[in-house]
Amino acid sequence: MTELILVFKQIPWLFVALSFVFAAVIGSFLNVVIHRLPVMMKREWQQECNHYLAEYKKSVFEPNQQTLEAPIDAFPDKYNLVVPGSACPKCKANIKAVHNLPVLGWLLLKGQCAACSNRISARYPLVELITGCLVAFLAWHFGPTEQFVYTTVLTFALIALTGIDLDEMLLPDQITLPLLWLGLILNLSGTFVSISDAIIGAAAGYLSLWSIFWAFKLLTGKEGMGYGDFKLLAVFGAWFGWQVLPLVILLSSLVGAIVGLSLIAFKKLNQGNPIPFGPYLAIAGWIAMIWGESITQWYLSTLY
């Protein structure tokens, strides 16, 4: 391993290129996570509802009945991030391995299913390409270091969260909470910031948006954001300390306002309709991860 790291340091472009290829492959898996994790969660919720409804029926409508048949499983087929294999949603034809190659597979298919010519969304190669480019940039920025490994893991998670929030307006605890704890664990040894800054950052990240949420709800009677947004900001606080939080909030609010107003102007969004805030937090947090200190210093220099 040491010899390999030395090679990467001597030939940095090789490390960047291999990082791009590896990340693009992971990007293909992230497409699966973005699509399947919400479905898995909804299935779990429905199965829990079936169970509780059966228990309610037993206790209220059939109090004298000793046994009650278990509710029919609405989803008998096994469904997770691995099973079933990738297939066309229209004709159910299995996708060949060569067509699962990141970006190239979509280009070979010309964006259509090989069996039925059903259109395949361009978002799939786009996610793979973005994942590859972001991680290649991290490889160039950090080099073959621990920071590169950790920020790559964070980047993968942020891409998955962004895709899921855009589709479902949902930031799953299955991703945000492990990220939060991972950030705190990494900073036990001061990987990015001191553990005290990380703990304060996690608490301040959550409580700041939580306070805004309740202030807005008390004033308007409406919910301005979801609890997943609190947890995602807490993730950045846990990873990079409380110092990055003002910048993340400022950048995410600015980008969100620009995108929201643009969508309204082009009549892609009705005024008053909700838009996911998670993607803007993710973008702002990633920018702060790379350039946060430089941006802060530049801003302070303009004031004095």
UniProtKB/TrEMBL annotation:
Its topology with respect to the membrane?
Multi-pass membrane protein
For the keyword Hydrolase, the answer is yes
Q: What is its main location?
A: membrane
Reaction(s) catalysed by this chain, per the record, are:
Typically cleaves a -Gly-|-Phe- bond to release an N-terminal, basic peptide of 5-8 residues from type IV prepilin, and then N-methylates the new N-terminal amino group, the methyl donor being S-adenosyl-L-methionine
Q: Name one GO molecular function term.
A: hydrolase activity
Q: Where is the Prepilin type IV endopeptidase peptidase domain?
A: 153-261
Transmembrane stretches, by residue range?
12-34, 124-142, 148-166, 175-193, 232-265, 277-300
Cellular location(s): Cell inner membrane; Cell membrane
Supply the alphabetized keyword list: Cell inner membrane, Cell membrane, Hydrolase, Membrane, Methyltransferase, Multifunctional enzyme, Protease, Transferase, Transmembrane, Transmembrane helix
**UniProt superkingdom:** Bacteria
Q: Where is the Prepilin peptidase A24 N-terminal domain?
A: 21-142
Enzyme Commission number(s) from the entry: 2.1.1.-, 3.4.23.43
The cross-references to InterPro entries, in alphabetical order and at most eight, read: Peptidase_A24A_bac (IPR014032), Prepilin_IV_endopep_pep (IPR000045), Prepilin_pept_A24_N (IPR010627), Prepilin_peptidase/N-MTase (IPR050882)
| Described purpose of this protein according to its UniProt entry | Plays an essential role in type IV pili and type II pseudopili formation by proteolytically removing the leader sequence from substrate proteins and subsequently monomethylating the alpha-amino group of the newly exposed N-terminal phenylalanine.
Question: What family is this protein classified in?
Answer: Belongs to the peptidase A24 family.
Name of the molecule in the record:
Prepilin leader peptidase/N-methyltransferase
Organism of provenance: Shewanella youngdeokensis
Organism placement in taxonomy: Bacteria, Pseudomonadati, Pseudomonadota, Gammaproteobacteria, Alteromonadales
